[in-house]
Give the backbone structure.
Amino acid sequence: MIANRKDDHVRFAAEQQRRPDGHNQFDDVSFVHHALAGIDRTDVSLTTRFGGIEWPVPLYINAMTGGSAKTGLINRDLAIAAQETGVPIATGSMSAYFADDAVADTFSVMRRENPKGFIIANVNANATVDRARRAIDLMEADALQIHLNSIQETVMPEGDRAFSSWGPQIGRIVAGAGVPVIVKEVGFGLSRETLDRLRDLGVTVADVAGSGGTNFARIENDRRDRADYSFLNGWGQSTPACLLDAQGAGIPVLGSGGVRHPLDVVRALALGASAVGASGLFLTTVLDGGPPALIALISGWLDQLRSLMTALGARNPAELTRCDVLISDGLRDFCADRDID
Ligand code: FNR
């Protein structure tokens, strides 16, 4: 049952990538061009630090899959690309492993292929501390992600309908995990109010995982004959909106959801993300061309990211927040409605 769901998610997410729809709010973010701002490429470092974590690059492969034979092969290929390029990588939700030990290898293959890399294990907010620890142990994980997906669960007929325990459970997992805990959405975004709550629960890093890319309301509606909740297909805040909302929240944030190219990476970093993740695009790249295609894509992005930082005068990712950015259209309206300067 879980295995079928995992295969469906991959299939529908790949279809969405191949037929993107609607406006992407990253296009409402542009840089004021300063012709004399540039520095020397040799002075640019991609290293990023946040919440006690240091990564050599501000880019990562975000949570996707595992739990079926097919998704085990995808995890192997993603992990090979992570190993070759040095980007951190997250597993998909490890609920399938808690339900059936036999699928352990569809996750642990990522550690085998990427023995020295930064790996993040992924669990849901119902996970017990014991299960979170089992996930971390299996992956020899450097960090843990907890995903929040109330809208996805709502669209799924078999999904959870009880969410009140999530907050307290996050607090317990943070206290008992033994590694840094990153709380993320799955493509509907984290609001400022949610970030405040996470900070109060002791969470030290949040990934806003906003809308604009893979859309799990659409995926869950498409998985069944009757798309009962199709009116939720436009739910949530975009990634740039969440990053603007997060400013001054007192918790480091990562930016993911709808990232299409290195300019979106730079835009997210300029809006305050400490690092930027992508899922759906990296998935289709590896499905179409295997690890060599994903290695080429990520290497190209890192090279172009360094070039853009050179032209913008940012010696490290954090310095991008000093750039002058212009916010237009729907994103500007969002800022006005939320009293964001
Ligand atoms: C996901 N995502 C996800 N997130 C999570 O925390 N646990 C999970 O198990 C999954 N599963 C999953 C499967 C597939 C096939 C995709 C494409 C994505 C959500 C993912 O981490 C991310 O938040 C969203 O996909 C938005 O980013 P993109 O795809 O727009 O870059």
Notes: Residues 280-312 form the longest helix (33 residues). The mean pLDDT is 97. Residues 9-10, 13, 62-65, 92-93, 122, 145, 147, 184, 186-187, 209, 213-214, 256-259, 278-281, 283 surround FNR (CB under 6 Å).
